[in-house]
Amino acid sequence: MTRTQHDEHASSFGAVAAEYDRARPSYPAGLFDAIEELTGRPLKGSDVLDVGAGTGIATRLLHARGAQVVAVEPSPGMAAQLHRVSPGIPLVRGGGDDLPFHDATADLITYFQAFHWTDPLRSVPEALRVLRPGGALALVWNLKDRSVPWLGEQEARLAAALPNFHYYGDMNVITGALDAHPFEVATRQLRWERRITVEDVITDLRSKSYFAVLDEAVKEPVLAAERAALLEVFPDGRVTEEYRVEATVAVKRG
Fold first, then answer.
1. Ramachandran region, residue 179 (left: φ > 0; alpha: ψ -120 to 50; beta: rest)
2. Would you say the C-alpha torsion 127, 130, 134, 138 has a positive or negative sign?
3. 169 phi-psi bin (left φ>0, alpha ψ -120 to 50, beta other)
4. pLDDT at 92
């Protein structure tokens, strides 16, 4: 993906914020247990910045664990949806490449499904600047388990139909940006699943950047074909979607 395409995709989410909030997956409780274990501190009472918060799916879960969490979101549309759904959560417009916070003010900075939209040459030093000594940076992705036959087949169909289709790929390449910095890095992987409808799957696809950037006349036939393909596999309209969650937690030394 070129830099222009990257920026176009990154800015596409505002127009699909409602679909994003309605259909994107949540995160299992065990993930937050793992974050506490790897950081060596409870979320309750911690000062947390959830960067690239989107519509607040993970932000609300952090808040529920007792974190003093601030949502940080660059997209006006996504931020507006977050505020509509969770008006009590503090919200700051901004992004990870230039965090609008003072030095050494956060115990934890999180990126849920968002770090790949940053420039690590800027976002990692910014995280180091804002974190307190012993604070941590947590990078999390929900990844559909493409070894499950129907999910692998879906990826193949979308890749064939959409020239701009992309998936997260190898997270180790992205998190390798941490290696040159004073962090102690640990990883954790969890598996979970959710039960949703075929229409939920279609709504989730609408919220993907590779669909959001397309004209309606281009994406609607692809979505219609995908709906038909899913109903062949799941004639009752109920889908089990398998995920693995990959978490990288980097604790600031000193």
1. alpha
2. negative
3. left
4. 98
Beta bridge partners of 194: 241
Would the pTM count as exceeding 0.90?
yes
Instruction: Give CATH superfamily name and number for 3-144+169-194+243-252.
Output: Vaccinia Virus protein VP39 (3.40.50.150)
Tokens of 25: 């997956």
Cα separation, 185 vs 1, in Å, equals: 28
Question: Rounded to whole angstroms, what are the CA distances from 192 to 30, 37, 157?
Answer: 10, 19, 24
State residue 250's pLDDT score.
97
pLDDT digits (tens, 9 = 90+) for 156-200: 999 999 988 876 655 666 788 898 899 999 999 999 999 999 999
Task: Please tell me the distance from the alpha carbon of residue 36 to that of residue 55, in angstroms, as a whole number.
Answer: 23
Distances 105 to 58, 93, 101, 196, 251 between C-alpha atoms, Å: 20, 17, 7, 39, 15
Write the CB contacts of 165 (distance below 8 Å, at least 6 apart in sequence).
Answer: 158, 159, 210
On whether the CB atoms of residues 208 and 9 are closer than 8 A, the answer is no
* CA–CA separation, 190 and 139 (whole Å): 14
